[in-house]
Design goal:
six-stranded antiparallel beta sheet, 19% strand, 15 strands
Amino acid sequence: MLLELRIRDFAVIRDLSVELASGLNVLTGETGAGKSILLGALSLLLGERASSESVRSGAERATIEAVFDLSGQEALQARLTELGFPHEDGLLLLRREVQAEGRNRAWINGSPAAAGTVGEFGRSLVDIHGQHEHQTLLHAEDQRRILDEFAGAGALTQRVREGYGRLQALRAERARRDERVRDLTARADFLRFQLQEIEDAELEEGEDRSVEDELRRLDHAEELTRSANEAHDILYGEDGAASERLDRARSLLQRLVRFDASLEPFLEQLETAYHLTTELGRTLGSYAADVEVEPARAEALRRRSDLLFRLKRKYGPELSDVLETRERLASEVEELEGGEIEMEALDRRISEAEEALVSDARELSALRREAAGSLEGAVEGLLPQLGLPGARFEVNFEGAEEPGPGGLERITFLASLNEGFEPRALSRIASGGELSRVMLALKSILARVDRIPTLIFDEIDAGIGGVVATAVSRKLKEVAESHQVLVITHLAQLASMGHRHLRVEKETREGLAATLILRLEGEERVREVARMLGGDPESATSREHARELLSAG
């Protein structure tokens, strides 16, 4: 529900705050007082394009704010949460600012937002009837939604939408896999060649390092033998070797220890050096004896090293990369070979999803067509009471070759407001007043399912009076039992039925025209209704007539 509308420096409005009530709010005033400007400001919050020309003369910017109560609007509250806008107090503040230099900005609950996002929330909360571009019931998507809700087909509609989404996802997966298989098929021979090349090598992790190490030893076998033998001789094998000299030194130190016990640690160290030198010399001798010159083995290792080098250059740079490539190629070849079976399984799932979607869509179509007949009869029954005798209303079904997210058909509301004329789309009805009365008939019937809480009617009283004016007024009051309604009117009958009466006035301040809105109560309201009746608002007779209307309302 719209709680308050605040407007500053917009057109001829300097600073205005309008508080609305639940039920029926009526807005009256002399022609030219600025009632349409009020709607123009509100239209900005519904997504209308901002213009710097709307900024009040001499002002830097125009601002429009609307405060809504989101009670019962769980879907909108969830949407706010999804977009990251705070709403802890259950209120929604939409704001747009138009600067004189042409820039414009928007906010939701104090946080910067795109104007389109502000419009999204505004259109979910307010429906203006009288300006075609803001009426939700002029849009095919909304007409289909309204018919589905009137038919009680909400769950089935959701099932169709979800079924269509699943089918599209399966088809996308089918296309993706098909493209993948085509790509693999085109590369099949090359994939298999690469895989075979790597598998034939029978690689082992770290093999390149072990091959290089062994090849290095074989290439230097003679040097290793010669140097190891020479070291063996120096340490152990020849006369005067290091181990022999250490042994003599050890004998000398053993004698000295008998005379000086402080030399005991040095003797221990010398013993260790002697044994280490002896062991090392023997080990080097054994190593030299075991080194073999193997030209055939060296050649085989060189060929293996060359193969590993080529594979690493082609699939590397490291041997681990080559092994990873082998696994990837094996997976792709396996995917290619098993692709046909997977595609068959996916095709079966697509076929099942198509059958389920068609079945649900046909069931939905049947419900829609049954509900459409009831809706047509109900609207046509109301239109004569609203001053449209001979008017016709139709729900048009335009079939599709296959189900979409909305089912098997496009829904369009059509109307003919004059005898002998073929029905046409509501968006092509020229008269704002006639269109507003068609909308009033629809809103009356759809009150239980229409989710937009605030309805604004402009021009609905154009060209009517007498019995029709009374019927329109009563129907608006009836709609106001389930919606918040704001109606701009020149009809005294309608004004007298309002739960809240607001009057628009224009005055001159500091040489500039300014629009004001006053809440009327008591005698002020009596005088306004008397003025609207065409009499003298100060006349006792006019005021008495006005009181009679107000008491009847």
